[in-house]
Amino acid sequence: MLKMADQTISLDRLKINGRVYRLARRLIITVEHEDDRLTLSSNEFGLVVSAESLEEGIAGISEELATLWTVYVEEDPANLTSDALRLRNNLASLVPA
């Protein structure tokens, strides 16, 4: 079976809690092809999503990022560890103020 080379895509928009945000910087996503599945991943945020199509994978990455947003950005910073605060700041830097 022929294996396609990994590719990267960049996202410039993200849907969080039903609202679409234009990102302050592009989010790089690696796309790996394996048999009839795609694996999309973000090294920056430690996300991995398996999907049948690119659209499904992008939706999965968006859902994962929205979950991280809810857990870290919408949380009171006083309740977060120093590592969680770094993640929170990195996530928040995606969306312009």
Short structural summary:
Helix content is 32%, strand content 38%.
Which ranges are low-confidence, i.e. pLDDT below 50, for 5 or more consecutive residues? none
Number of helices: 2
Overall number of strands: 4
How confident is the prediction overall: mean pLDDT?
91
Radius of gyration: 15 Å
Description:
A four-stranded antiparallel sheet has the order 1-2-3-4, with helices on one face. The termini are far apart. It is elongated. The chain has helices spanning 54-73, 82-92; strands at 7-16, 19-34, 37-42, 47-51. It is an alpha+beta fold and 97 residues long.
Keywords:
alpha+beta, elongated, 97 residues, 4-stranded antiparallel sheet
Question: What's the structural blueprint in terms of helices and strands?
Answer:
Layout (H helix, E strand, L loop, with lengths): L6 E10 L2 E16 L2 E6 L4 E5 L2 H20 L8 H11 L5
Helix pairs in contact: 1-2
